[in-house]
Every structure is written in structure tokens, then in C-alpha cells.
Amino acid sequence: MATIKQRRSIKPEERELARKSQEQERVEAELSECELRLATLRGELRALEGRYLNLVGAPYAELDELRAQLAERLASEEPSNERLQRAAREARARADESRSAACEKNAPRPKDFSPSPELKRAYREAAKYIHPDLTADATDRARRQELMAEVNRAYQDGDEPRIAKILDMYEASPETVQGEGPGAELVRVIRKLSLMKNRLGEVESEMQTLLNSDLYLLKIQVDDAHEQHRDLIAEMAEKVRQRIADCKERMQAGAAERVH
Fold first, then answer.
1. Confidence of residue 227 (pLDDT cuts 50, 70, 90)
2. What is the pTM of this model?
């Protein structure tokens, strides 16, 4: 009989709170996993882009410059030839664009991005508790944005202890103190669920954008080559260097012809 009274004393908001809390745990786990996959893909693509620009982009800039010089030389020999003049202008524009891109990305070669299971676990925990899209409070959101930016930097740097420290700092802050009462708590859970589901949509959208990018297509090709024990980026760089050598030979041959 006591059990029946206890069961009847449970308020509807308490039952709903228990149900929503279970849903919140499920969505939290799903969101933290999605955030991890997105952060991992960002890191992998950033490392790939850096290596490509370092090994292929810089030589391509040199090749485009040589091609522009060759086109300009041919155009100077026939000033009335509009086709050669147009080709020279286009080649110079490409060379300028390549040089500009190479200068912007002229940075030390990044390390390969290969996060450990421990690093991934630390990131999941941080995203689960402090992501800015998990709060509707403006002050708390601003603080979370700063902390999550630090988490992302630490993740890209492979700094697991730093991620754990950031999470500890947030959990100890006054902003995490919960109010009292099942009714108020239910409202907070419902709003948090709504925010998390919205964030899930944003993560999926950004992930799809990355998966549809040219850089991701290159990643697939690089990964396939790696399975065959080939370094696709190195192969591409070698082809560009060969083109540079061919272009220099053409320029030297043209110079020799003018001398004779």
C-alpha cells in the first residue's frame, strides 16, 4: 500500500522530467559524437590542405610564373598578335593569383592530424557540457563560446590535459548552478533539448558541406593512394617539378634561338 501511495504522489511534471532527462542524455551523447566527427574532419582537412599547399601549391606558383614569363616573351615578339597578348595577360593573372595564395599559406608544414582515443574522449566530454548552443542565457553563451574556442584549439594541438582543465574550470563556475523544483528543471531540459537538436542540424549541414568540398575529394584520393602504399601528394609535387623543368628548358631553348 505504501508503494501505491508513493506512486500516486509522483507529479506529472516529475514523470515528464524523468522522460525528458533520458532523452537529453541520448541527444547529448549523439551531439558530442557529431561534434567530435566534425572537429576531426576539420583537423584532417586542415592538415591535408597545409601539406598540399606546401608541397604542391608553392611549386605550382613557380610554374605559373614561368608560364607567364614565357607567354609574355612570345607576346612581346608579336605585339600585333591579339591571341598571344590575351594569353599573356591571362597567364600573368594566374601567376599573380598563385603567388598570392602561396604567400597567404606560407607557413611551416603542419603535423599530420591523428587524434588519440583519449583526446577524442576529452573532446566529447567538453562538447557535451560547455558547447555554446546548449544554453539560452546570453551571458552563459558568451562564456561558453570562449571556452569552446579554447577547446577546439587544444583539440587541434592534441592537448588533452588542456581540454580537461577547461572543462573543470567551467564545471566549477557559478553559471553551472542549477535551480530547484521539477517544473523549472523541466523547462530548462526542454529548452536545452531544443538547442541541442538545432545544433545537431547545424553540425550535419557543415559536415555535408565539407564532404562535398574539393578538399574532401582530394582526401579520398590521398587515402586510396595510401592504401596502395603511395604518397599522392608527393607524386603530384613531382609532376609539377617536372613541368617546371620542362618550362625552363623551353625558355632556355627560345633564348638560344634568339642568340643564333
1. very high
2. 0.68
